[in-house]
Design a protein that fits this description.
single chain, 321 residues, alpha+beta, Tetrahydropterin Synthase, Chain A, 4-stranded antiparallel sheet, 8 helices
């Protein structure tokens, strides 16, 4: 406050704090904390595992729920309807799952094959939490445990195969066998999860020899292409040739059958003529002669018929024509 002489004086504020006020303030804070800690919300894709003084009490479905405040009840949200993913040997930026990416991707990627070669293997594992209580309470760190089990299964499977199988034709077999081993270990340890899928993302040889392996793979692909082309040409030409051969064989068999039948018919006619000839030789000879002439004469353009007494033939011929 400014006085008449120009100086300032400060008056001490009158804080009238009574013991009742001192008691109400912490009680109010305690009440607010109690209200805020007495309810929780569960999202549609999750459930809540409730513990009372650290002991499992119940599993609550999605929605708004109430619990004992001040930490007496704790609710742990577990996403049971969402498929979780673990990545090995690489990492996707912005992953929502904190355990999705390992701490040492390079170490996870490098593996030794059964023929003592090295390969760089990248894969993913997708799993779903089936029992929230088992997932939370059976092991201290369930997600890192799943990572360790998956890596163990993959290294065991890779170690039983040659580097050529790992890099080329054995990918699907590796996925199936590694997934089966992972499921067996998860069931044995009662982790409360279901391994849904294991998929190889990329398999590379070591960088110093990667170019040579790529050339080998390209040669194998070219070989398969040429084999497929040869098989296609074979399937196109061979059936056609077989069809033509069958057609010619059928035609030859038909011709042979026709010729045999014709020969048999000629033999039968000859035998009939022979029987008639033996009965009347002169009549049969004359009949055969007349039948032959009836067949031959129509084919001639000009005809000159002479009897046995004709002495001169030239006057009858028109030599000018």
């Amino acid at each position: 406050m400014k006085k008449s002489d120009g100086t300032f004086t400060f008056e001490k504020p009158n804080w009238n704090i009574t013991p009742k006020v001192l008691l109400l303030v912490p009680l109010g804070i305690l009440a607010v904390v109690g209200v805020l800690s007495s309810y929780y919300t569960v999202s549609p894709e999750s459930v809540a595992v409730v513990q009372r003084f650290g002991r499992y009490v119940s599993t609550q479905e999605p929605g708004l729920h109430f619990k004992l405040p001040f930490g007496m009840d704790t609710a742990t949200i577990v996403p049971v309807k969402r498929q979780l993913k673990l990545e090995f040997g690489f990492g996707t930026p912005g992953a929502s799952n904190p355990d999705q990416i390992g701490t040492e991707p390079d170490a996870e990627r490098d593996m030794v094959t059964g023929d003592l070669n090295t390969a760089q293997v990248e894969w993913i594992v997708q799993y779903t939490i089936t029992s929230p209580s088992d997932f939370l309470f059976n092991l201290r760190d369930p997600a890192p445990t799943i990572r360790d089990l998956s890596e163990s299964a993959m290294r065991e499977v890779i170690g039983d195969r040659t580097v050529d199988e790992v890099l080329t034709i054995g990918r699907s077999g590796i996925e199936v066998e590694a997934l089966a081993k992972l499921r067996e270990m998860i069931e044995l340890m009662q982790l409360g999860v279901s391994a849904d899928q294991l998929q190889l993302m990329a398999v590379h040889p070591p960088r110093p020899v990667q170019r040579s392996f790529e050339e080998v793979n390209q040669a194998q692909q070219d070989r398969e292409t040429l084999v497929n082309q040869a098989n296609g040409e074979y399937n196109r030409v061979i059936p056609k040739a077989r069809g033509e051969a069958d057609q010619r064989i059928s035609a030859a068999e038909g011709y042979a059958l026709r010729r045999v039948n014709e020969a048999k018919g000629d033999v039968a006619r000859f035998e009939e003529l022979l029987a008639e000839y033996r009965k009347a030789p002169e009549i049969t000879k004359q009949r055969l002669y007349l039948e032959s002439m009836a067949e031959v004469l129509p084919k001639l353009k000009s005809k000159i018929i002479l009897d046995e007494d004709a002495k001169q033939l030239l006057p009858l011929l028109n030599l000018g024509q």
